[in-house]
Design brief:
Layout: H1 2-21, H2 29-43, H3 53-74, E1 83-85, E2 88-92, H4 104-112, E3 117-118, H5 124-137, H6 139-144, E4 148-158, E5 161-164, E6 167-168, E7 187-193, E8 200-204, E9 211-217
Parallel strand pairs: 4-9
Antiparallel strand pairs: 1-2, 2-9, 3-9, 4-5, 4-7, 5-6, 7-8
Length: 223
């Protein structure tokens, strides 16, 4: 009986593979539907693997692993998953993709979710430190081949004056031809570029999507 069973199965297998090659699989579902579906999966060649995608996918795995470690650190009030300076932690919320780019209000909320706020750049020293940090950590630079990224800061522009919260900002480095002095372009973003000649700040509309650049206060660790 087993020999008849396997003979019938072999017949159906050959039939289904032939039908598959003729682009007419499972011609008679009443007779061989499930067998045909099984054989069809065997007869269908696996999709070709694009070898050029493998390094990019491997980089993504490393990125996600690193991001997870940093996000764990950001939940602490003593650890910093970014750059530490004067009891503040500065970090770029950047996963190397468009999904991390947010309008101004949403970028502020993304920082708030980490116990932080959008970065307040109030000196040339901090400006330089942040550039060095971002240049070394922006995933678009390191893994996606971009030459620059743009990130939101917490500064805003009113009547020719830049403010950080309620106080006037003591520092700003405008891009050429900026600010435009257009009422709805009242939030400041910073360009982090590999080319030092392209590094600057500029005024932008709040609905434009950039990366959130955050800062939070961290407790001093006793040693």
């Amino acid at each position: 009986m087993n020999s008849w069973y396997f003979a019938a199965l072999l017949y159906l297998s050959v039939y289904c593979c032939v039908a598959k090659s003729a682009k007419d699989p499972c011609k008679d579902p009443q007779r061989c539907y499930w067998t045909c579906k099984w054989v069809e999966s065997l007869c269908t060649p696996a999709p070709e693997c694009n070898n050029s995608e493998v390094p990019r996918l491997e980089r993504r795995v490393r990125l996600l692993t690193t991001a997870l470690e940093k996000w764990k650190a950001l939940s602490s009030d003593t650890e910093c998953g970014g750059m530490r300076h004067n009891n503040n932690c500065y970090f770029l919320l950047d996963d190397g993709g468009v999904r991390s780019m947010l309008p101004y209000d949403e970028a502020q909320l993304a920082c708030n979710d980490k116990g932080a706020k959008l970065v307040e750049i109030d000196s040339a020293e901090l400006y330089g430190r942040l550039y060095t940090y971002a240049e070394n950590n922006a995933r678009d630079f390191l893994y996606e081949g971009r030459e620059f990224i743009i990130a939101w800061t917490g500064a805003y522009y009113v009547n020719s004056t830049v403010f950080l919260g309620e106080r006037e900002s003591p520092f700003v480095r405008w891009a050429r031809y900026h600010p435009f002095n257009i009422p709805n372009r009242n939030r400041l973003a910073v360009v982090v570029a590999l080319d030092s000649n392209q590094r600057h700040m500029f005024d932008a509309t709040p609905n434009t999507k950039f990366y959130p650049f955050c800062q939070k206060h961290v407790k001093k660790i006793n040693t």
